[in-house]
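REQUEST FORM: STRUCTURE PREDICTION
Request ID: SP-0412
Submitted by: Lab K.M.
Chain count: 1
Length (residues): 56
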Amino acid sequence: LKISFSEDMALTKKYCPGDGETVFLNILHRVNSYSVKDNILTLLMDDVEMMRFEKK
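STATUS: Completed
RESULT:
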């Protein structure tokens, strides 16, 4: 399934120390598809798994 994230996404203005937010957003902008299986959302760049989120 195809997906894309805009460069103009709304973000919080709360300060987060370190590079975590920048790294997260850079990866998110590369994502172009996703899959959902067994309560796990996987974000992909082509066939490469970039991030995985599990519903708790």
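NOTES: The mean pLDDT is 91.
Reviewed by: T.R.
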